[in-house]
Please model this.
Amino acid sequence: MKPSPRPSVQQLAPYVPGRPIEDVEREFGIAGAVKLASNENPLGPSPKAVAAALAVTPAVNLYPDGSATFLRRALSQRYEIPAEQIVIGNGSSELIDICTRTFVDPGDEVVVPAGIFRMFPVAAGRAGASYVEVPTKAGYVPDVDALLRRIGPATKLVALANPNNPTGAYLTRADLGRLFAGLPGHVVAVVDEAYFEFGHETPDYPDALDELRAGRNVVVLRTFSKVYGLAGLRIGYAFSTPDIAAAMNKVREPFNTTTVAQTAAIAALTDDEHRERTIALVRQERAFLAGELEKRGAVVNPSLGNFLLVELPIPFGPLEPEFARRGVILRPMGGWGFPLAFRISVGLHVENLRFLAAFDELLRAGRLGLGPGAALSAG
Ligand SMILES: Cc1ncc(COP(=O)(O)O)c(C=O)c1O
Model:
């Protein structure tokens, strides 16, 4: 006899993160590898956030403020949502887990568009939920009508990542409005806007806070990991109704975020320059990468995030170590339901050129399943 995990845990497919740089450098005996695998900020953290984090470090003998009072106040002022409607998490990943555990009992349904960010199936699996993936439309765009048709009495939660990682696809304002208009009252909608700031200027890209302001049962998730460059500090935030936020706070660990992370996040929020520089870099380099990859014959999905989902004619899995040994860490998407695809995070121009050089080497060697005429050198 040996201890056996709960059946839902036995069935759980673990979340596989991007490979750390040190790991790849050790395996292949190389130096200076670039990581384009986890949609991090290529410009680094906000310098204001780093200074604030360092300044507060001498006080880490004390427990953090479990309610993250000052951070919630800063977010409340910036977004004009009352502080009691804001929940702070150890990354938005934790908030996905918290809102799932807040609403979903074993057997309850979680309904999502196919190909949604992988933390949703992981959280649903941990909760023992019945996880329902609804096929998407062309371009991996969530199908609102199909989602609404699939939602029933057993559905507790419907989730959407807007834009989605890894597809980069997004639901327009009109479609998001239609989804909310059709949602039954017993269902909570989670709209994960981890990449919100990158899509912000796209005219029909919605802000799900408008749905919250309109009184919907929505949890809007945002993070400091992407545009603010604080992925290593693990801090994200949720906006919801007062009732939902209060329930999520009951489920949350009392000290789930650190003093250092809370303080850095407050400083990062005020660093408009770093945020704008990040957005501008991502826009420019995303277009550059997409153009170069398309010239080489790869299928590049349009993306509102700081990443691209790129499809080849052959499975990408075996190619991942080929890029890694050339010092370029990419994310294979087979485990996410896209066996021919890899996801590349938009890096600095030099990092993107480094990736293209590795791509061209493999292309010329006939390893990518693309026609020989596709070989070009990067501009
Ligand atoms: C759509 C989406 N949501 C949430 C997250 C989690 O971010 P974090 O837990 O670092 O806030 C990510 C990270 O890649 C993401 O792509």
Observations:
- Residues 119 and 248 are 17 Å apart (CA to CA).
- The mean pLDDT is 95.
